Amino acid sequence: MIDLAIALEDRPGALADLGEALGRFGVSVEGGGVFVVDGVGIAHFLVAESSVARGTLERAGIRVVAEREVLVLRLEQDVPGQLGAVARQMAEAGVNIEVQYSDHANQLILVVDDLEPGRAVADAWATRPRGVRQ
Questions:
Q1: Which of 114, 133, 121, 134 is nearest to 90 (CA)?
Q2: pTM of this structure
């Protein structure tokens, strides 16, 4: 899965334009979100077919800022402290989490500044015993 960072205008219909463009070409959004800060919109969406999605958006005049591989983790929703624990492990490995959101399967999606050590933390997280916070 790939995270697309997309620049959006801060105006009514900008997200509709993005969604309609992707829909016309059968691109499914698997997770993500949109935020506006100080009048600047940025979207992060998880897609399987990044080249199709990127081409579709660019043809529609929507600027894709970045395309990056993600880490996918499963948190135990009934165990408090999971986000803090995995974020601390990333920090201790020297990995900065730049973007965090959930996908449609309730998995944690992370875009990090250093993929390989981030992947090592994610792999260790996936093999820990259930119910363990750290």
A1: 121
A2: 0.91
